[in-house]
Design a protein that fits this description.
The chain is built from 2 helices and 5 strands; from the N terminus they run ββαβαββ. The protein is α+β, with helices and mostly antiparallel strands and about 120 residues long.
């Protein structure tokens, strides 16, 4: 099995409604994102999935989140834009855009250098 990983990032603001602490106030992060996809095969030149193609696909999704108030966006109208919910959203959205021969493995989202969440469907 081959696992291909590409990192990206975006900056946005959010607040966690119902949270007992400072995160209930509007604040911002520069979120780091790692998307990992998998395949058991390579093509005729030895590539599973081109890094550049994966980068472009990821950026097409995270660009919609960049410099936005996440609470105001449709995917987070009914749920808080927590790191967990952002990771799940990215996973499901990117999964739909992948070629049939490539499966998504996991998405990691960091809200800071010290705090991250991994989402995958086991």
């Amino acid at each position: 099995m081959y696992i291909i990983a590409v990192d990206s990032h975006f900056a946005s603001s959010h607040q966690i409604v119902g949270y007992d602490g400072k995160c209930s106030n509007m604040h911002g992060h520069t979120w780091k994102v790692k998307v990992e996809v998998k395949s058991g095969q390579v093509d005729e030149i030895g590539i599973c999935f081109d890094f550049k193609s994966l980068k472009e696909l990821i950026e097409s999704v995270v660009d919609d989140l960049d410099h936005q108030n996440l609470n105001a966006l449709a995917p987070f109208q009914d749920k808080n834009p927590t790191a967990e919910n952002i990771a799940g959203y990215l996973y499901r959205t990117i999964k739909k855009k992948l070629p049939e021969r490539i499966d998504i493995y996991q998405v990691t989202v960091w809200e800071s250098d010290k705090y991250s969440v991994i989402y995958r469907e086991d």
